[in-house]
Amino acid sequence: xxxxxxxxxxxxxxxxxxxxxxxxxxxxxxxxxxxxxxxxxxxxxxxxxxxxxxxxxxxxxxxxxxxxxxxxxxxxxxxxxxxxxxxxxxxxxxxxxxxxxxxxxxxxxxxxxxxxxxxxxxxxxxxxxxxxxxxxxxxxxxxxxxxxxxxxxxxxxxxxxxxxxxxxxxxxxxxxxxxxxxxxxxxxxxxxxxxxxxxxxxxxxxxxxxxxxxxxxxxxxxxxxxxxxxxxxxxxxxxxxxxxxxxxxxxxxxxxxxxxxxxxxxxxxxxxxxxxxxxxxxxxxxxxxxxxxxxxxxxxxxxxxxxxxxxxxxxxxxxxxxxxxxxxxxxxxxxxxxxxxxxxxxxxxxxxxxxxxxxxxxxxxxxxxxxxxxxxxxxxxxx
Length: 383
Ligand SMILES: Cc1ncc(COP(=O)(O)O)c(C=O)c1O
Prior knowledge:
Distance between the termini: 41 Å
Structural class: alpha/beta
Number of helices: 15
CATH architecture of the largest domain: 3-Layer(aba) Sandwich
Bound molecules: pyridoxal-5'-phosphate
Strand content: 15-25%
CATH class of the largest domain: Alpha Beta
Strand order of the largest sheet: 2-8-7-6-5-3-4
């Protein structure tokens, strides 16, 4: 019954070079000298012995599953301990853990906004925010990327409740949102502000405290600070942090929190271990800073079309999807794995190679990557 419908949709994706294939990760490492510049494990915590040990230990203690929704009997000691630890780490009164970042966005936006409200979303905001707006029923207005002026124009004349949603570190561009100005505008216009710092939490700011710390902003600069454990913490899951009233409200109102099985307790246990590692091994942040600086300097010297970024997300602009796909294949043949990002993840004609740097990259690895990128001979003209 659905075959014609599906075939048509999939054919359209193929025609637009947007058809995606999944590859079993291990099979990517066909060469012994393969270099991996993909994924989001920026600090190398996914395989850290203390993190893996905490995960295994908690699975032994609590079993592999939480066995229920957090509202019933799925909320275990590690969930509670992680909520407290995250709130304390960031200086928020309270936090609540969601199963993943996608669901955290769905939960928060649908809890806070309804069809009479308007959500203002950065033009390159994550798909989970867009889908969350749909679930909430609120009106969606997109403002130009990181443009506080354009956002102010968009807000004018919108009289009902308003929520501004931005990423902290933008996952597909690697730049950092102008949070101080966004926060000032939110306060001036009595709008709410949600910062999704999926890629900044654990990475930027003092000891990895994220984008608010990066700008020395207090916790109450935002209404909700949301971030994930699946990136810098190498694990899985997400949280929202805010005032007592906000977090209690989310627990009561966020259906994607309530009506799903709580994450396995081993996951929050692994993130708690990751938080300890961040404090005990500050060299991880300095090593990452060195990797980023070395790569940026090499890219500048070689005049590569890399977007400005001080984060581990470095973006090599290509343009057309088909060219980005070809560039990814050529790098892969050289034993270098990067992520090829195409529409609809990014706007048309801005297909790119997303290079994810991490603490384990040595200068030699970075030189190999930089030389390979240069050998592509790509000149990018912004649309
Ligand atoms: C900005 C942003 N928000 C939310 C998510 C979703 O997080 P998760 O992978 O935990 O569902 C991502 C992940 O790609 C992201 O980049």
